Amino acid sequence: MMPRAPIEPEGTFTGLSAAAILFGACVDVAATVLGSTLLVLWLAPELATSEPTQAQEALARLAASPTYIAANLVLGGLCTVFGAFAGARRAGQLHVRHGGWIAVASTALGVLLTSLEPVPAAASPPVPFWPEVLAWLLILPAGMLGGALAGALAQGPDR
Fold first, then answer.
1. Number of structural domains in the chain
2. CA–CA separation, 50 vs 148, rounded Å?
3. Does residue 95 fall inside a structural domain?
4. Which DSSP string corresponds to 49-61?
5. Is the pLDDT of residue 62 over 70?
6. What are 23-33's pLDDT values in tens digits?
7. What is the average per-residue pLDDT within 139-154?
């Protein structure tokens, strides 16, 4: 009896498209930056016209708000799903695997960009611990969900 061929490649990086992963990570980071900026301006419109000291106080109040924290978590997750969807569609194969690697790459890109910010960390308002942990736990499932959605939509109803 002949052994069956594996469903997916056996290597960790076999069959992956680096260009598609980088594209998805860039889409995720860009959507997150745009969405977060719009969220802050929607929840605290006085930031656009206030002085720097008033803006810092408004940002500190906003960072302590449970509404902002929850909305920011949901927005970040949706942006990761969207970036993974876009990158996995571009890859055209191994959609869930691409979605997971897009989530990892966008996290690395986000950490790199955050570390390169010129604003000192002492000036930024403190973030509670539980949203950080929840965000880190949801990154990979959100990416894989985006990849799974891309795979489901790529197959279509008549395949």
1. 1
2. 44
3. yes
4. TS-HHHHHHHHHH
5. yes
6. 999 999 999 99
7. 90
What confidence score (pLDDT) does residue 114 get? 82
Structural tokens at position 154? 């790529």
> How confident is the model over 125-137, as a mean pLDDT?
80
Give the whole-angstrom CA distance, residue 47 versus residue 104: 32
Residue 9 belongs to a domain: no
pLDDT tens-digit series, residues 34-47: 999 899 888 887 77
Q: What is the domain range of residue 44?
A: 18-113+125-154
Given a cut of 80, whether residue 99 has pLDDT beyond it is: yes
Specify whether the CB–CB gap between 73 and 140 falls below 8 A.
Answer: no
Q: How far apart are alpha carbons 80 and 100 in whole angstroms?
A: 10
pLDDT of res. 12: 67
Taking alpha carbons only, the member of 74, 132, 139, 130 closest to residue 109 is: 139
Which residues contact residue 10 at a Cβ distance below 8 angstroms, ignoring those fewer than 6 apart? none
Residue 101 lies in a domain: yes
CA distance 129 to 134: 9
Cα distance between residue 83 and residue 21, in whole Å: 9
The one-letter code for the residue type at 21 is I
Q: Give CA–CA dist 72/7, Å, rounded.
A: 37
Q: What are phi and psi of 93, to 5 degrees?
A: -155, 160
Residue 11 belongs to a domain: no
